[in-house]
């Protein structure tokens, strides 16, 4: 397995293998059902959950409406606190900025806090191309990195691995990256965690450069916030001399006080905890004159757009930018549970990925055009979303974009998308159905034809119809449609009125 | 009160028994129900597959056909949700696209008077005991759009609980989607089938002989899976159970 998503097949093909992989299905079912139940319990504890959810939605919407204003305010606050702000329009620019900053320190290695933004831009690969080694320090990201694998979940990137697989990865590959796994390593969680702890400790103590993302940025103070469980983040944020944070521009909140909402909803939604173990907040650098206090001597904030402004321009799709990356939608999604995270062809899998990737990357590729259809529209994701993103609404909106084309914003310019290829037969069928459904006589004639020929209907369909009949019997067409029965038995009723 | 049955295109074409059951049930409860012959399809499949503009004339047609009635009753959670949740949204989108308020004002009258069957029974007629008799062990699957879009809550199970002879057993993981999802069932057949199989296994584990739901589209998928597996369990629409009496038993 390679570490990137280039050349992914469309979702249905990618999902097919996952559905048949019984180990993967078992791992995912166990993990998602466990955390799903825990989340429900943690959320039910709060009487004001519905109001917290609505507050989170409104804070995010208000911020997004005036994002330009708050970003400038943030830049001023970060600069005043001794940090330097860089603006990156896309992944390449962000990677160039970060690589340049690391090179300027003279270092050849960095330690990383778990970060979706740096996964999104492929930072590790870009740094490797510059001869810089980036070490993931989150336990699950470490498993993914050591296994030359891809993350399959936002919060639990190695959710597709079980303990035995993790033991094998550690035993086989830790020595290539640093301190080897202890001899005779078993698959007990305590031993696996200890092996990772020892392996990572030497990296924490040696590293001069740390790289992070952030869960939140506070515009009024210039403060960045990382919420985590393992403490590896705190090590990376405080020990290195230089800290570089790559953060999506939508991670802003206007005021410190706004955090009170999200610091309640995020942990309960993601890990089902009342409070996460480590919340690290930092504002600029340690005192520049005296060199006293904690934290880095140099702090760089790279603000990442990479399709976010284009997404913001779409009035239905922009709600995806409210996302706080909690993963509750993945854990509750019946499609994610069976297809697994890799099928989504992005670091953002599951329902949120299905609406985020086709907006951030566009719908030109096969995988991105198929993602809006990777849902039965059951609505479980919307129910659990702590910022009330109506994921089914955005999915349907993006389906429309795929089959009908229409106006979108790409790289800041308004363009009109052409309808995607490969939907011609479906378009024709929809047109024909719409024709018949606005003419009751035509519909009735079709129903009668189906009823009269019902003895000749095959049990299994050829061609595209096999998608149904490979796993399900077809419904039997009745001898007469309801409307004919009604006409036959109650024919005069309409006439009397 | 002039009550119209909106049977839905799927039921009209493939499940006329459900239509007859609704008529029988409503007439037994003293409701004078009509079936306007001009009715066709609410446009849900178009809308959900990305053909919103094609769904608009169907929505307008729906509004015209049912204009003269005080209440529109449908035995489908998803078609009910289409009218109640998505028709207003279609109007709002048309407005946002600079096409004025004509769609919104055309659809507005039918939206609040459209009821899913169990809503009509429990909220409008105020009944939960409909004098039904159905001596079978039944498990109930709450379909997604009825559960989450319309918020049917306990209405269906309250109705089932009052049916004489009926042994209602809880379905494990009831609120999980069966995997139908309209065109999802053919666009993502492997995942859809896997979800259907898990739903069927959960239903079979209850020992019930009947899997009941209030939406025949989902039952078509679940029932098709049951039939392929040669399962003894039968899919039955809620209306058919509620229509069944000691005198006229549904088999």
UniProtKB/TrEMBL annotation, chain A:
It holds the Pfam family Fer4_8. Residues 398-487 form the Lactate utilization protein B C-terminal domain. SUPFAM superfamilies: 4Fe-4S ferredoxins, NagB/RpiA/CoA transferase-like. Keywords: 4Fe-4S, Electron transport, Iron, Iron-sulfur, Metal-binding, Repeat, Transport. InterPro entries: 4Fe4S_Fe-S-bd, 4Fe4S_Fe_S_CS, FTHF_cligase-like_sf, Helical_ferredxn, LUD_dom, LutB/LldF, LutB_C, NagB/RpiA_transferase-like. Residues 320-389 form the 4Fe-4S ferredoxin-type domain. Gene3D superfamilies: Alpha-helical ferredoxin, NagB/RpiA/CoA transferase-like. PROSITE patterns: 4FE4S_FER_1. Residues 73-303 form the LUD domain. This is LutB/LldF family L-lactate oxidation iron-sulfur protein. It comes from Streptomyces luteolus.
TrEMBL record, chain B:
Residues 3-83, 138-222 form the Cysteine-rich domain. InterPro entries: Cys_rich_dom. PANTHER family: LACTATE UTILIZATION PROTEIN A (PTHR30296:SF0), UNCHARACTERIZED PROTEIN YKGE (PTHR30296). Signal peptide: none annotated. It comes from Streptomyces luteolus. This is (Fe-S)-binding protein. Transmembrane segments: none annotated.
């Amino acid at each position: 397995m390679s570490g990137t998503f280039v050349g992914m097949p469309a979702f249905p093909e990618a999902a097919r293998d996952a559905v048949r992989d019984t180990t993967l299905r078992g791992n995912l079912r166990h993990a998602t059902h466990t955390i799903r139940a825990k989340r429900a319990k943690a959320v039910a504890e709060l009487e004001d959950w519905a109001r917290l959810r609505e507050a989170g939605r409104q804070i995010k919407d208000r911020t997004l409406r005036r994002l330009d204003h708050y970003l400038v305010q943030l830049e001023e606050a970060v600069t005043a606190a001794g940090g330097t702000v860089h603006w990156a329009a896309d992944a390449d620019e962000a990677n160039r900025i970060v690589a340049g900053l690391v090179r300027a320190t003279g270092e050849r290695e960095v330690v990383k806090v778990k970060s979706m933004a740096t996964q999104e831009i492929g930072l590790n690969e870009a740094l490797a191309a510059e001869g810089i080694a980036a070490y993931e320090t989150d336990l699950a990201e470490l498993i993914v990195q050591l296994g030359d694998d891809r993350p399959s979940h936002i919060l639990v990137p190695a959710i597709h691995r079980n303990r035995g697989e993790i033991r094998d990865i550690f035993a086989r590959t830790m020595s290539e990256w640093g301190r080897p796994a202890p001899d005779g390593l078993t698959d007990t969680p305590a031993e696996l965690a200890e092996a990772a702890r020892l392996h990572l400790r030497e990296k924490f103590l040696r590293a001069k450069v740390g790289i992070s993302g952030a869960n939140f940025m506070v515009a009024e103070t210039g403060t960045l916030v990382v919420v985590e469980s393992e403490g590896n983040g705190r090590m990376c944020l405080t020990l290195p001399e230089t800290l570089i944070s790559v953060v999506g521009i939508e991670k802003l909140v206007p005021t410190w006080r706004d955090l009170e909402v999200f610091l309640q909803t995020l942990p309960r939604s993601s890990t089902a905890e009342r409070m996460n173990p480590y919340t690290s907040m930092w504002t600029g650098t340690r005192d520049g004159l005296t060199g006293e206090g904690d934290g880095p001597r140099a702090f760089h904030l790279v603000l990442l757009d990479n399709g976010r402004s284009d997404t913001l321009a779409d009035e239905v799709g922009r709600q995806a930018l409210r996302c706080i990356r909690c993963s509750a939608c993945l854990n509750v999604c019946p499609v994610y549970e069976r297809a697994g995270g890799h099928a989504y062809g992005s670091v953002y899998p599951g329902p949120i990925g299905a609406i985020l990737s086709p907006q951030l990357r566009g719908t030109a590729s096969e995988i991105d055009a198929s993602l809006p259809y990777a849902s039965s529209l059951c609505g479980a994701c919307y129910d659990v979303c702590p910022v009330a993103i109506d994921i089914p609404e955005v999915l349907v909106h993006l389906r429309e974009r795929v089959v009908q084309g229409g106006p979108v914003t790409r790289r800041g310019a308004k363009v009109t998308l052409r309808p995607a290829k490969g939907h011609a037969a479906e378009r024709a069928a929809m047109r024909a159905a719409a024709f018949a459904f606005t003419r009751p006589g035509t519909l009735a004639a079709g129903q009668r034809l189906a009823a009269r020929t019902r003895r000749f209907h095959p049990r299994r369909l050829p061609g595209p119809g096999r998608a149904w009949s490979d796993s399900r019997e077809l419904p039997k067409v009745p001898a007469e449609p309801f409307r004919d029965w009604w006409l036959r038995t109650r024919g005069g009723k309409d006439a009397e009125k | 009160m002039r009550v119209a049955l909106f049977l839905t295109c799927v039921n009209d074409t493939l499940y006329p028994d459900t239509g007859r059951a609704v008529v029988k049930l409503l007439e037994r409860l003293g409701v004078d129900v009509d079936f306007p012959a001009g009715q066709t399809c609410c446009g849900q499949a178009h809308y959900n597959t990305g053909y919103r503009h094609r769904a608009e004339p169907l929505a307008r047609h729906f509004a015209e056909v049912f204009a003269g009635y005080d209440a529109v009753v449908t035995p489908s959670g998803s078609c009910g949700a289409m009218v109640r949740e998505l028709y207003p949204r279609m109007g709002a989108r048309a407005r946002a696209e600079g096409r004025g308020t004509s769609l919104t004002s055309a659809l507005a009258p039918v939206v609040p008077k459209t009821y899913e069957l169990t809503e009509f029974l429990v909220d409008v007629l105020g009944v939960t005991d409909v004098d039904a008799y159905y001596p079978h062990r039944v498990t109930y699957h709450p379909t997604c759009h009825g559960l989450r879009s319309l918020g049917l809550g306990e209405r269906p199970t309250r109705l089932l609980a009052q049916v004489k002879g009926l042994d209602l057993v809880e379905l494990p993981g009831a609120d999980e989607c069966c995997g139908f999802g309209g065109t999802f069932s053919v666009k993502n057949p492997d995942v859809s089938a896997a979800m259907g199989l898990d739903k069927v296994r959960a239903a079979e584990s209850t020992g019930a002989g009947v899997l009941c739901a209030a939406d025949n589209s989902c039952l078509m998928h679940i029932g098709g899976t049951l039939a392929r597996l040669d399962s003894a369990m039968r899919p039955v629409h809620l209306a058919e159970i509620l229509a069944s009496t000691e005198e006229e038993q549904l088999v």
